[in-house]
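pasting input
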Amino acid sequence: MTGWVAIVGLGPGAENLITPEVTQALAEATDIVGYIPYVARIAPRDGLTLHASDNRVELDRSRHALELASLGARVVVVSSGDPGVFAMAAAVLEAVENGAADWRDLDIRVLPGITAMLATAARVGAPLGHDFCAINLSDNLKPWSLIEKRLRLAAEADFAMAFYNPRSKSRPEGFERALMILQEACGDARPVIFGRAISTPEEHISIVPLTDARPEMADMRTMVIVGSSQTRIIKRSGAPLVYTPRSVAP
Amino acid sequence: MTGWVAIVGLGPGAENLITPEVTQALAEATDIVGYIPYVARIAPRDGLTLHASDNRVELDRSRHALELASLGARVVVVSSGDPGVFAMAAAVLEAVENGAADWRDLDIRVLPGITAMLATAARVGAPLGHDFCAINLSDNLKPWSLIEKRLRLAAEADFAMAFYNPRSKSRPEGFERALMILQEACGDARPVIFGRAISTPEEHISIVPLTDARPEMADMRTMVIVGSSQTRIIKRSGAPLVYTPRSVAP
């Protein structure tokens, strides 16, 4: 049996947001490797071994997946959202680069998924309809000073911004500082979207002006999207629609 | 019959990258509205009317979709990739905001899809595995000076960058200028990925150092991803893997 590794995105939560390509890989797998809550989304079946591990052990998990594949297993590494956006694909490739020489010759595929910022944006309209950036607000793996620098430059560039991991348990004050920087740098009431657990039964969305955004509106299951200076809200009888126009006047 | 509008993403091209949610909406539709090559991806069937229109008529197309829905049709507006990323969702919402008052009360949904940058990134590894930005390089709807400003600020922020519409027919020199700005601002040989028609039979990928990137390597079907200063290439017997590590040293 020839082993392989597929690093796949399960999307934000709903079954109907998983691509058929990923469903097919899951059906062919002998082993599923991933963080506990993501592995819990995979239905057990005969011939499939589930390997669930805790958070913050991404490199150990990656090496485990590569080792299994080098022994002939068909391994699916599961991420939520898209595996290439603040998820497992970079971790597995880091393990490849620094690991056993024969891991480089493994069949390694990355299968894309619906990442949280796209799912959240879609729920409220099209806040990412113009140029935007995506920033991981966790400072576990990078200095906070770099996050601050990027926030200020992104505001100056007038990007809409999508924030992953806005509030870590270990450093809850980071998001508060991020909001203060944006309130100062942007100086307006542009919309901020808090999308929690999008497409799951726990889904919750709130839209507030930047001037009213508060850190406790987000937790680790929340995607935060901050509009650009051009982002607009359409009021109507139901939930409002938020979009960033395609055009910027000269 | 109660009409609705669903603005959906068909993904980059392959059938197995279309979400089941989108497939379901297509199955329920009475009318499909979109740009000619995207409507051509929809299989005709009894009870389904296909309305294909040319490029650059996004607002007319949006108003047509809203008008059909207000008359009771179940309308799917098709985009490639994700409808919220440089695609039809923002155009439809602009038409809603500036259109007939009763359009605001229509059932309007945006259904996400696999956008080109995620599909291209997945094909080569994880070049968007750390903070990144997405910029539409077409200056049809915004001044070129704003694009230049964003390129310089994105380089200063050390974002990986994904470029949509790198080379328009009407302004082919824009991408050449963009590359010159990046070569000057970044001053290194970081990888640039040209992903053309990803997941289709015409798929073509090339990876070159920024110093060797040339404008003719892209056309309108190409997604261009420029790595950050941290992006790495893993050489191996097959196609190389490209990833941006999760960590930045303090």
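fyi Chain A has a mean pLDDT of 96.
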